[in-house]
Specification:
This protein is mainly beta and about 90 residues long. The protein has a domain of about 50 residues. It is built from no helices and eight strands. It has a four-stranded antiparallel sheet, with no helix packed on it. Strands 4-3-7-8 form a four-stranded antiparallel sheet, with no helix packed on it. It is elongated and about 40 Å long. The N and C termini lie far apart (about 30 Å). About 15% of the residues are buried.
């Protein structure tokens, strides 16, 4: 299996309380495994508040819905040994 690297990392975002925010991270290969999204070192799952998806096979997205003050912090995207933060 080829080593998957991060081609385009996360960008810092500023949003208003109650808005949605989307983070994108592009990886080098499609069907990447061992992917993880975290907010303040807490692993995020795909649910009604967090939408985790893949666009065009290589662009991994995380949408946080209706953010609150408690959502302030560092978002981390990890693929294998590589990480990107915002």
């Amino acid at each position: 299996e080829p080593d998957v690297t991060i081609v385009s990392g996360l960008k810092d975002m500023v949003v208003f309380e109650g808005d949605d925010v989307t983070f994108r991270c592009q990886v080098s290969h499609e069907n990447a495994r061992d992917i993880e999204w975290k907010l303040q070192d807490v692993a995020l799952q795909n649910n009604e508040m967090n939408e985790i998806s893949v666009e065009k096979g290589k662009i991994h997205t995380l949408t946080l819905r209706k953010v609150t003050e408690q959502d302030v912090g560092t978002i981390t995207f990890r693929v294998g040994p590589h990480t990107s933060t915002a």
